[in-house]
């Protein structure tokens, strides 16, 4: 029987007035949960922020981060030109994608395509060698995924054989309490306007809210290890955790300067199944003299303890960062916790088969 191993990340984070994830009308995204309106940040927004953090914070090597783009032909063309400057790289690149079954034209691929650096190089090598076996092109796209492809998966509607199952899942973040969006009415002054003109050069409004968010993500470590060795998988879990905990989507960031860090973090290693603890906030946290963060910590802690006595086993190992969750695990500084998490995952990956 294959061993099961999941790492769950639970984060409580207070965000001041902000609009970090907008809908099609420019309003902050919301959701109804527990019968009341909550602030919401989509999983896509936070995963994009995490992929940026992988690069900008050097959490992963450059070769470990893929490209999600319609410009795959250009990437392959550039690699072909580097390998064989004497060849017609543009023509070869287009033929290469045709051989791989990826629809493309002068504007690029039909849809965004997630591709690793290793896959780009493999396709270019086949092109330079003028390989005529289309199976080899498919094989080049079916192996050697980047770390972020292994984590977040790849879906190719035109050819499911090129799909990769995601080893990680990221939930939509929601506020632990009810919210009501507000509007900021602003004016802008024209620096070059006439002295006798006291009017504004521009008027407008920006919709925003503020919230204490519950954020959740999980990593299927065994699925991740299918593409990486045990040591690398443990390192990636650490990088994923750091990116999830420290990143922030950039919507309206220049307007609101809302870059905060969490109030508390709870990380568990589970050997049965992932467990999202959003049920702690199905009854919206009520405003109090302590604000929302402290009662949210109490609600999360109480709900987890109750759940472990009824429906779910207690985690194999737990870690916390920050104050207020010490009943679940002793608190540690973030970097110390991440080091301990990496080591614990590495130890757990010793011997995947169990009796």
From TrEMBL:
<protein>
    <submittedName>
        <fullName>Type I-E CRISPR-associated protein Cas7/Cse4/CasC</fullName>
    </submittedName>
</protein>
<dbReference type="InterPro" id="IPR010148">
    <property type="entry name" value="CRISPR-assoc_prot_CT1975"/>
</dbReference>
<dbReference type="Pfam" id="PF09344">
    <property type="entry name" value="Cas_CT1975"/>
</dbReference>
């Amino acid at each position: 029987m294959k061993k099961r191993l999941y790492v769950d990340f639970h984060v409580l984070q207070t965000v001041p007035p902000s609009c970090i994830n907008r809908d099609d009308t420019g309003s902050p995204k919301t959701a109804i949960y527990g019968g009341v309106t909550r602030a919401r940040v989509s999983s896509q927004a936070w995963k994009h922020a995490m992929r940026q953090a992988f690069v900008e914070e050097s959490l992963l090597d450059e070769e470990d981060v893929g490209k999600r783009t319609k410009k795959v032909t250009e990437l392959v063309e550039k690699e072909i030109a580097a390998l064989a400057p004497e060849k017609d790289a543009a023509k070869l690149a287009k033929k290469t994608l045709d051989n791989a079954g990826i629809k493309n034209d002068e504007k690029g691929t039909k849809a965004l395509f997630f591709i690793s650096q290793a896959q780009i190089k493999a396709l270019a090598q086949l092109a330079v060698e003028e390989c005529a076996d289309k199976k080899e092109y498919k094989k080049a796209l079916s192996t050697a995924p980047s770390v972020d492809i292994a984590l977040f998966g790849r879906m190719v509607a035109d050819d499911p054989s090129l799909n990769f199952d995601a080893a990680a899942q990221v939930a939509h973040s929601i506020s632990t309490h009810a919210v009501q969006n507000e509007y900021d009415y602003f004016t802008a002054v024209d620096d070059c306007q006439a002295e006798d003109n006291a009017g504004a050069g521009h008027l407008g409004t920006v919709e925003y809210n503020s919230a204490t968010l519950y954020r959740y993500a999980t990593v299927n470590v065994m699925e991740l290890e299918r593409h990486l060795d045990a040591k690398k998988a443990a390192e990636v879990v650490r990088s994923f955790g750091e990116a999830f905990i420290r990143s922030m989507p950039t919507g309206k960031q220049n307007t609101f300067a809302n870059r905060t860090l969490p109030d508390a973090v709870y990380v568990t290693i589970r050997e049965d199944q992932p467990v999202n603890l959003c049920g702690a906030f199905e009854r919206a946290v009520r405003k109090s003299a302590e604000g929302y963060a402290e009662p949210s910590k109490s609600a999360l802690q109480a709900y987890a303890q109750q759940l472990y006595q009824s429906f779910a086993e207690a985690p194999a190992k737990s870690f916390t960062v920050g104050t207020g969750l010490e009943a679940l695990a002793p608190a540690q500084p973030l970097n110390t916790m991440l080091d301990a998490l990496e080591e614990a995952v590495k130890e757990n990956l010793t011997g995947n088969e169990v009796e």
